[in-house]
Amino acid sequence: MTSNEQAGNRYEKFQTRLQQGISPFAERRFPKLESIRTLVQRYDAQPNTPMVVSTAGRLSAKREHGGLAFADLRDATGKIQICVKRDAVGEASWSLFESLDLGDIIGVTGPLFKTKTGEVTVAVQQQECLTLLANAFRPLPEKWHGLKDVEVRYRKRYLDLIANEPVRKVFEQRARLLASLRRTLEADGFLEVETPMMHAIPGGAAGEPFVTHHKALDVDLYMRLAPELYLKRLLVGGFDRVYELNRSFRNEGLSTRHNPEFTMLEAYWAYNDCSDTMELVERLIKQAAQDVLGTLTFQYQGQTIDLSPYGSWPKLSFAKEMEKLGLSPDSPLEQIQRVLEKKGMTIKGLTRSQLVRLSEQLIEQFVEPQSKQFPLFVVDYWTELSPLAKSKPDNPLVADRFELFIGGMEIANAYSELNDPIEQRRRFEAQLTGERSEVKGERKSHTSHLTPHTSKQIDEDFLEALEYGMPPAGGLGVGIDRLAMLLLDQPSIKDVILFPLLKPVSE
């Protein structure tokens, strides 16, 4: 029987029930006070104590033996068996039970007992102790484990959660990861805040923003690239330690590590610097691994990751690695381009504003493979690649910044925050001039139009805030989705986002 035929039969049953005065959606509530797992654990702890319970869940199996029937109920925590006797519940309730389909949501009331096979069971022994709470018009994936198509799993996550218990556990563990990060930060005196998701001027990170329009104000707005500039305003306002678990948006490509909508942790710590932030992120991640996994050693895609060695995680200097290639922060673009071509990275008409993207490619080639088994801090990025970071005291061309790589992925980015409004303005203007020059060249050769990102403005309000004085501070950004991938051993970012963005299916 096809799924459409099964659905047709279910609609016919629904109409029959309505004619019998049974409405499958009439109940407004049901006295389910405990999860199924809790009920089973409580019975196992006190097997000789009489217990009458009410519980509810989705029907996952039925086994009828004449006037005796067994069935399985599931909720998000587990499974429990129910036992229904025809002569005990009466013809009306028995007829209702017989008509139930797998996937229907029901509630039952009765005493708990354990069968000879050792299964904790609810005995439905009276009339009106079986209640239909929701009619499932569509059949569930076959045998509860028939949902294997990855595309369907992402598009219909609700079925994925029903059919694949490991998937549900991944998202339960993700929730514990977030709770752990919050506990650690709040124990350190950080205040959780919320900042705008729609910005008048895109900023705080490199990337192409999504653009929207506010009708009442008749202005274009941008979905935030990052909350950084607003969180720094709070440092100006007198909060010394703030953090936000935020949704950010980048109008860019999709990959196993990139989703246009993603979750970041950003934290700012006044009167501290990059080295303090390095200690903080190590502590955050180790505590999260301990809270979620119960260990600091775990598997990620066939590779053993060990967070515990060395006392302090090792460091690698980006600037020194570039020196090995014969490059320095003030190397001419022509020289950088020649070196990159030898490494198989060719970009025609290289501009200074493209160096950020190139640095990412260099990191991918030379650094990420070194972080497969243990965490690695990449330090000493060129200042030109870090417009919001302070420079090193002994070298203005190198930023006081690090990125953390674990399992071959960038997990965190941090730096000593630039709090000099004059220098910040100079960098913004240089960045904007470079982007305009780049776009001008594109228009000349490709007749392209200005995109929201390349037409961005300088955030004058942020610069004005800095002019009131922002204390020295360390800032940290952690990619929550990638951290979840790492700790939960998931190959794709889509496996740790409940509803990842997918291309719409044509009808």
Jot down its keywords.
507 residues, alpha+beta, OB fold (Dihydrolipoamide Acetyltransferase, E2P), BirA Bifunctional Protein, domain 2, 2 domains, eight-stranded mixed β-sheet, 14 helices, 21 strands
Describe this structure in words.
The chain has 507 residues and is an alpha+beta fold. The chain has 2 domains: 138 residues, Nucleic acid-binding proteins (OB fold (Dihydrolipoamide Acetyltransferase, E2P), Beta Barrel); 339 residues, 2-Layer Sandwich (BirA Bifunctional Protein, domain 2), CATH 3.30.930.10. It is 35% helix and 25% strand. It is built from 14 helices and 21 strands. Strands 7-11-12-21-20-19-16-15 form an 8-stranded mixed beta sheet, sandwiched between helices. The radius of gyration is 29 Å and the shape is elongated. The chain starts with a helix and ends in a 19-residue tail after the last helix. About 3% of the residues have low confidence.
CATH class identity of the largest domain: Alpha Beta
User: What is the name of the CATH superfamily of the largest domain?
Assistant: Bira Bifunctional Protein, Domain 2
- In CATH, the architecture of the largest domain is 2-Layer Sandwich
Q: Please give the order of strands in the largest beta sheet.
A: 7-11-12-21-20-19-16-15
- Could you describe the largest sheet, including whether it forms a barrel? 8 strands, mixed
Structural class: alpha+beta
Counted up, domains total 2
How large a portion of the residues is in β-strands, by DSSP E?
Answer: 15-25%
Give the oligomeric state of the chains in this entry, treating copies of one chain as homo and distinct chains as hetero. single chain
- How far is the N terminus from the C terminus? 24 Å
Unreliable sequence segments = 439-455
Number of helices: 14
Number of separate strands: 21
Helix content: 25-40%
Radius of gyration: 29 Å
Shape: elongated
* CATH topology title of the largest domain: BirA Bifunctional Protein, domain 2
Mean pLDDT: 88
